[in-house]
Amino acid sequence: MPAVGGIATTGGKEYPGNLTPFVTVTCVVAAMGGLIFGYDIGISGGVTTMESFLKKFFPSVYRQKEEDATKNQYCQYDSQKLTMFTSSLYLAALVASLVASVVTRRFGRKLSMLFGGLLFCSGAIINGAAKAVWMLILGRMLLGFGIGFANQAVPLYLSEMAPYKFRGALNIGFQLSITIGILVANILNYFFAKIKGGWGWRLSLGGAVVPALIITVGSLVLPDTPNSMIERGQNHEAREKLRRIRGVDDVDEEFNDLVAASEESQKVENPWRNLLQRKYRPHLTMAIMIPFFQQLTGINVIMFYAPVLFETIGFKSDASLMSAVITGCVNVGATMVSIYGVDKWGRRFLFLEGGTQMLICQAVVTAAIGAKFGVKGMPGDLPKWYAIVVVLFICIYVAGFAWSWGPLGWLVPSEIFPLEIRSAAQSINVSVNMIFTFLIAQVFLTMLCHLKFGLFLFFAFFVLVMSVFVYFFIPETKGIPIEEMSQVWKSHWYWSRYVTDEDFPYRGGVEMGKNGRAVKAV
């Protein structure tokens, strides 16, 4: 296999420690930061199918939809103003993630989570009370600032708090929260759309206050990570915190490694400039390519616009919202599979299996939509079996994403960065994610109008490319302590030309054998 193939279950550096109730509860509370991101993804698509919302803010879209200004089903929601409502959030998140990098490094992960919760709460209140489009956009931008801070801090927090043997499962709690947020948003949209008087959309948008308060209060009661405390010179407190987190008194080896990593990071005056150094080439590549590929799976097309998409392929408004609820349930269930398997089967297996599954499903959905809608977008009456087939394969596609690129797109970057560049690299990871989330959200409806059913082939092509990228360039990181991660690059068939023992001196921990398996130092 042309990458690090696996990690031996015995041998290697094994820090003492247990999965204590304290660290479990801490990670569960921190992972709730994903709720704000997920709730927003789920709520926006449903709200934009509510007639009262379209009448008030986007009357031209409503007229085009209702009065059959065009009979082409592919183009009925094609409005740059409407997509700006959805995608403006991600531009704001991009800006916030750059600021959050400095806050996270200098003041700790908790403060970034607190800022994220407060900003998201403010945006939710403005959106729920919106009287004009400018209020919607302002609210969305505040939501974006909140998401930028939360997405910067939460994955790092989880990776640093979790014992390395359980890091994958606990970190994926963040993605699980995102999927729960999407599901809750879809269910609320379904019921709020039925409210007489047409003000249900206010409840949908204003309801974002609830997940915002959860992460705000959570950030006030959570402890800071030992890594962050050491980084800020609080070594004694960090040792005591590490003992409590691990549930054992003997934490000297892990503590000393954390201090050594921190001392190295203190020598770095400009982590942004340092990212360009040759030895960080694999880290920079992953910080850019993983979020880039994650967005080009096409998943946000499904999650943003699931109600719009299902209505476009012929379902009625209620049925389309219900279909979105179904895909939301699949998303949550499949993420649970990832939590179970990520530390058993490894990251690479899930990446490759999920990619294959998504590729097959996209080909089937393309054929199904193409056969009925053609290029003119006029399907006529759609039989029930057809609708079931489309929803079924979209659900299988969502499942493939939810146990591969969904959680691993956040997990792998957060666990591979050395402490000295961790905040800056995570900031790039979030920024790239938000740039491409924005671009896809902004151009999707226009692409659907012009590419027709070929849009799914567009994303299928990238799924193929990203699976090849995983096979050749992403090493297995299962079971490697976070401060020993440099070993996987030094033993990789390609990245070893950039990362050497001189760059990351061996400290007597994990050694990687010729076949890419971890062996114990002798």
UniProtKB/TrEMBL annotation:
Keywords: Membrane, Sugar transport, Symport, Transmembrane, Transmembrane helix, Transport. One of its GO terms (molecular function) is symporter activity. It is a multi-pass membrane protein. It is found in: Membrane. Its main location: membrane. One of its GO terms (cellular component) is membrane. InterPro entries: MFS_dom, MFS_STP/MST-like_plant, MFS_sugar_transport-like, MFS_trans_sf, STP/PLT_plant, Sugar/inositol_transpt, Sugar_transporter_CS. Gene3D superfamilies: MFS general substrate transporter like domains. Signal peptide: none annotated. SUPFAM superfamilies: MFS general substrate transporter. The chain crosses the membrane at residues 82-104, 111-130, 136-158, 170-193, 199-222, 284-308, 320-342, 349-373, 385-406, 427-447, 453-474. Residues 26-478 form the Major facilitator superfamily (MFS) profile domain. Belongs to the major facilitator superfamily. Sugar transporter (TC 2.A.1.1) family. This is Major facilitator superfamily (MFS) profile domain-containing protein. It comes from Eucalyptus globulus.
